[in-house]
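**Fold tokens**
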Amino acid sequence: MSEVDREKLLLATHLATTFKPDLMTNDKLEAATKGHGTLVIPVICAANSIVEDILRGLDVSLVDAAAPTIPLDIIVRNAVEAAKQAGASPENAALIVAALTYFSGAAARAGVPMANRKLGAIARIHAGACRTSAIALSTNKFTHRIPAFPAYKAVYELLLEKKLTKVDGAKLPAFVAGGAIYGHSALGEDINVPELAKNAAKAATEAMMRAMEGAGITAYPLWPALIGAAVTMEIVHPDSFLGEEYGTFGTVDSAYVAGLGAVEAAKLPPKIHVRGTGEEFDTAKVIGDFGLILKDIGGPSVIGSMALNEIFAGFQESSIIGAGFSGGPVNPPLGHLCGDVVPTIRLLIKSKGDIYTAAEEVKKYKLNSFIDPEMAICALNTIARKAEEVRRGLVTKTWLLASEAIRDRAIYRRSVKVYEMLKAGKSLEEAAKALDEERKAYVEKRGSAILSAFTGKKIELKFTELRPQARRKDPFTKKYWGFDSYISYDVTIDGKKYHIENLSAKAVPDYILEGKGMDDPNYGLALFAGAVLAQELQYIGHTIINITIPAAVAAIMGMDPKEAAKKAEKGAYLTRAIPGGKANALEVAKLAKKIYEMLTTETHDILP
């Protein structure tokens, strides 16, 4: 390879690698801007709109007013427009905006008859979505998804059997039910409402969890609780307050006790906390309020449910409650990256729009929450830059401030390493592989430490084999290991060593179907540990700089860009998890070569 100017090579490599956000990733970013992909960009664009409106003085919390419109109407309408502009359907736009305005300070309900403003209905009406019932709801996709039918079945069977409340409607005198003698008095507020709401929510939540298990998936608790509360709030008077045992008059409503029943059934923690701010939310109130929101929201798709699941990843307890992947410790594909939205909104409101203060807090918790924080922050930068192509705002500006320098350092370090290896006579495949090997070792070391802290046991894990085709033989899966991964590793748990061979195709099925290892309480933990760290490596399609940077450097040093892209993808055997790396590497290599040529051309040779 020819002699080059090192500094200009590094600059050209950086400029080409970051030329557009789509070149940083194998994930189909452009699809996410037009409604054909996930809803991550609509969520971010709506968040940009909401923060802008709140910081210019619109009161998100006002609901009880004798006026045809209130500031919340403007905030919701603008945010819905932003979400739709990014490709969200009306139903999904309503769900996204209702969730984000709620976590920005909007109330889920206004319980006065003439100003009966429910947040879910406000969002649905402004979005132009059709009214339906909670039967249209579905859980987030956890491999499969479960619609709300099991919750309805459980609740309505108990209603027919008169088992949800001791109050028998057949015994009520005429003109008691439906008015203040019942609804705002002892029989309603102290007895019937809390019994009916709590028991119904509990039965509905438990039914959803059993249905998930019946489908062969883990009963992650968040969505069963949300659907359980929503089905309940279709039945229970939503504006009823509870007796004094629950709190001062006007402070605790029927939605809260529905949330309480769902939380108890799902075994959710009593409090959840926002990343970056540490603000505490009462879980029962959140679940109950979302039950009230979801019953009015319309019929969001499973993609909408996935977006809401990731919005909940903004809480520190996301892994416990079964919220989205984007809260860590594994960094998921870019379509999931909504977990930083709520923390950033609240940080910006708290700091009165100071993006520097907010960015520092985002960077701080990102560095502490992920197995590979450098890659997680690169992914945040990519999705922020792509979202800004649709709608700019303080949320995306904050993310860029939090991530740009770390992304730049990640690119610079890799560029130098590849340059030095190629200059020393190493092959391009060796250089790309070295980057992946370096990342694998880091994931093993830091991942083991994170798993140890999470479980309270001393865990050390080393992969012994990571390759494609655990059970298939076709050409496609032979090339891209993420679709049929052969994963083997040694893991030590509190001094006891386990060897797991072929995790996904043999060890896990043997454990589930044949009970192999179930007599050892740590064997399941050994499978869990491997699954966590393996998926951190499998999901690397979100950031493919271990392919694009080697290709760029090699092209500048004289290799044909097409050949450089091919060899870089071949060498980066772990980053080559899904298709797309070679095509992006070719574009980056061509750009890098052209930029380098321009950087090394005298100005008078360029200008006319």
Q: What stands out?
A: The radius of gyration is 27 Å. The beta strands are 271-273, 280-282, 459-468, 485-493, 496-500. The mean pLDDT is 95. Residues 6-22+544-606 form one domain.
